[in-house]
Specification:
single chain; Rossmann fold; 11 helices; 9 strands; 21% strand
Length: 312
């Protein structure tokens, strides 16, 4: 592991902007649904763990869409777009520019355009940029998805546009990229932003947040192992090991991330070969995707040559 101890950024938090009414209504609906699910797991989780684990898996796999801001719509208008069909699921894909290809992978309940602030800097540095909405996300088909399904999409994109020079994943997107690499995809540079640790940690946090008792959690883990396969489950239980397929890696996490503990990225940096770790403060889980200083760090890491400032 190569650590960059002197690269620690601090930023002042700004007030959250007023939320759109549509977003507020959906969040309110989700809040009511969550309370009902909490009650159900508390009442029935110990008595009917098998049945409730089926419901827990259904909730785990379900995705939710939220309105995209205007700047994402403007970014879409500048891209060439097409539908990619992967195992009968239609996936919306966007592409900008020409040159060595860089793939952007969003996280759970996200959209490809959430990493859109990277597009122009990458274009100015001479790269082609590709992103997509995962199954059950954004403009792609479906209402649910899982790790291997998104990994299949990434591998299909690699066959069409790869091999990728670099891949940048956010949150759960890092796990999906790691699964694709585990299945043989190669990428020169891998950048992991706000990455969770292994699948076991993810499930533990999910069960804690949903008030799922241990009896139901044990059945849920068995169902998930069956869904993604025992081999991948065992490999990714505690971390996302990269034995091959990646030359260099950069791991970025904010210490004020309320969704994923930054220590999980620190642990990840100890498992990945030649990994560089950057820790920030004051950016949280989403603003980290929009900060100009970090965008420069990412572009500099990807581009080994003499690089003019791509943000100017």
């Amino acid at each position: 592991m190569v650590t960059a101890p002197n690269i620690t950024f601090k930023f002042a938090m700004t007030p959250t902007s007023t939320k759109r009414q549509q977003t507020f209504s959906k969040q309110r609906s989700l809040s009511i649904s969550a309370k009902l699910n909490h009650f159900g797991f508390q009442m029935l989780g110990q008595r009917l763990p098998g049945l409730m684990s089926w419901w827990a898996l259904k909730l785990w796999s379900r995705t939710h869409r939220f309105p995209a801001p205007n700047h994402e719509h403007r970014m879409q208008l500048r891209a060439s777009e097409y539908l990619l069909t992967v195992k009968a699921i239609h996936i919306k894909v966007w592409k900008w520019g020409n040159g060595p290809s860089v793939l952007l992978v969003h996280g759970w309940n996200g959209r490809g355009m959430q990493l859109g602030r990277l597009v122009d800097p990458l274009l100015r540095a001479g790269y082609q940029v590709i992103t997509f909405d995962g199954p059950g996300h954004g403009q792609s088909d479906g209402q649910q998805t899982h790790l291997t399904q998104i990994s299949d999409v990434i591998q299909a994109l690699s066959k069409q546009h790869g091999p990728f020079h670099s891949a940048i994943g956010h949150s759960f997107g890092v796990a999906c990229l790691s699964a694709a690499i585990s299945n043989g995809m190669t990428v020169q540079n891998l950048i992991a932003i706000s990455s969770p640790g292994g699948l076991s940690n993810l499930i533990g946090r999910y069960c804690q947040a949903m008030s799922i008792p241990m009896e139901t959690e044990q059945y849920l883990r068995q169902r998930l192992e069956k869904r993604i396969g025992s081999e991948l489950w065992q490999r990714f239980a505690d971390s996302y090991p990269l034995d091959s397929g990646v030359e260099r890696s950069l791991i970025i996490h904010d210490k004020d991330d309320k969704w994923v503990d930054w220590h999980e990225s620190e642990q990840l940096s100890q498992c990945w070969p030649e990994a560089e770790l950057i820790l920030t403060e004051g950016l949280g889980h989403q603003r980290i995707l929009r900060d100009p200083a970090l965008l420069r760090e990412i572009i500099s890491f990807i581009d080994l040559g003499d690089l003019c400032d791509p943000l100017n």
